[in-house]
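S1.2 Input.
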Amino acid sequence: MFGQRKFNVLFLCTGNSARSIMAEAVLAHVGKGRFTAFSAGSHPAGEVNPLTIATLKNARIPLPADLRSKSWDEFAKPGAPKMDFVFTVCDSAKGEVCPIWPGQPMTAHWGFEDPAAAQGSEAQRLAVFYEVLRQIRRRIEIFTSLPIKSLDTMALQKKLDEIGEKK
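S1.3 Output.
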């Protein structure tokens, strides 16, 4: 199923301003050379949450040059990159009817708390962003360590689902 090429990975959320953006940046950083990361939203906020940017910068995770809040429709159009993996990272996106992804990518749900909904002082809200980033990074590190090319489809799907259960 997977040859000697980079894997395209799309992270989906409703607003594409925090969790999916963090996942895109982390995979771009951790998966250098093996993965191309993308993110999108069903109802994009139109801008990346400033606390997302601050959290990534403070964690020394480089921001991809083209990082922006965008619609998942961009990835369902003709000529869009063919995805190998599509992960929903928020519970509302999990329940939405997704576009048809060309190439039938493997999918899984990796739900995370919405840091953009955190209440309190800026320091308290940043603490939630950092915790969500820690969880995202942990799941992505597990994902990038999988022997993807040597697992059959059913075994790989099982592993992807198991990653979604980790905190």
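S1.4 Remarks. Strands lie at 7-13, 35-41, 85-88, 106-109.
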